[in-house]
Amino acid sequence: MIEIKHLYKSFGDKEVLKDISTVFEAGKTNLIIGQSGSGKTVLIKNLVGLLAPTRGEVLYDGRNFVAMSKREKAAMRREMGMIFQNAALFDSLSVLENVMFPLDMFSAMTYRERVKRAQECLDRVNLIDAQLKFPGEISGGMQKRVAIARAIVMNPKYLFCDEPNSGLDPKTSLVIDELLSGLTKEYNMTTIINTHDMNSVMGIGENIIFIYNGRKEWQGTKDEVMSSTNKRLNALVFASNLFKKVKEVEMETLPPGD
Q1: What keywords were assigned to this record (predicted)?
Q2: Largest Cα–Cα distance in the chain?
Q3: For 1-79+158-164+172-258, which CATH class?
Q4: What are the tens digits of pLDDT across the range 34-87?
Q5: Which of 37, 118, 217, 255 is surrounded by the fewest CB atoms within 10 Å?
Q6: In degrees rounded to 5, what are phi and psi of residue 187?
Q7: Gap between the terminal Cα atoms of the chain
Q8: What is the distance between the alpha carbons of residues 182 and 149, in angstroms, rounded to a whole number?
Q9: What is the 3-state secondary structure (H, E, C) of the chain?
Q10: Would you kindly state where each structural domain of the chain is located, as residue ranges?
């Protein structure tokens, strides 16, 4: 579990995050949603230590990450996996070598053990046959799956995903969503996904945090999204024709007087 308490982040005179307090639940897919510029990416960067909060606490199972020493933070980051928006693979390394990279850097495994572990993760994302290829030789969706394999190779307790479906077609996005959801349960991870994809929200959103103008505006499950009376949330979620139709169908099926 990750808990943030009264988190603020400012850049000069501009306050980007404003008194955010929430809990990201272990074993669940926690989604952060909001319009561009709402503070989603800044929030994730504060959670993983790429940015330091102006004030507030970030608690990993009760451990205050903000107050840790550099050495303690470095040890803490070994419990984290990160999937970047553009996959961030090394072009000069093979798929297998990309997945092995965290093991090469941080584990005490032998070379043979590292290869075996990386292959296990590639097999889990159905890419074992692509292990000798290079990133430029595989599709964008396959690159995202390689990034997922690399993110889980160290058996993380916490998984962070920044727009994992960015640039993908709807079918491939569904594959990525199902993979992330399945791995969250399998590893009992605290998974946090920053997304604009409302299909992801309705598909795998077990705990959804809606950020508006740097503040936590709403929090709930994917089922509660459908019945929310928050106008700002509805404006975001039901902006597409797909969700307008879903809402209209639900209203038509309500008993008279409801």
Answers
A1: ATP-binding, Nucleotide-binding, Transport
A2: 68
A3: alpha beta
A4: 988 899 999 999 999 999 999 999 999 999 999 999 999 999 999 999 998 887
A5: 255
A6: -95, -5
A7: 38
A8: 13
A9: CEEEEEEEEEECCEEEEEEEEEEECCCCEEEEECCCCCCHHHHHHHHHCCCCCCEEEEEECCEECCCCCHHHHHHHHCCEEEECCCCCCCCCCCHHHHHHHHHHHHCCCCHHHHHHHHHHHHHHCCCHHHCCCCHHHCCHHHHHHHHHHHHHCCCCCEEEEECCCCCCCHHHHHHHHHHHHHHHHHHCCEEEEECCCHHHHHHHCCEEEEEECCEEEEEECHHHHHCCCCHHHHHHHCCCHHHHHHHHHHHHHCCCCC
A10: 1-79+158-164+172-258, 89-155
Average pLDDT over the chain reads 89
CB–CB of 134/91 below 8 Å?
yes
Ramachandran assignment for 124, one of left (phi > 0), alpha (psi -120 to 50 degrees), beta (any other): alpha
- Is 193:30 a contact under the CB 8 Å cutoff? yes
Name the residue with tokens 């296990």: 120
Tokens in use for 47? 């959670």
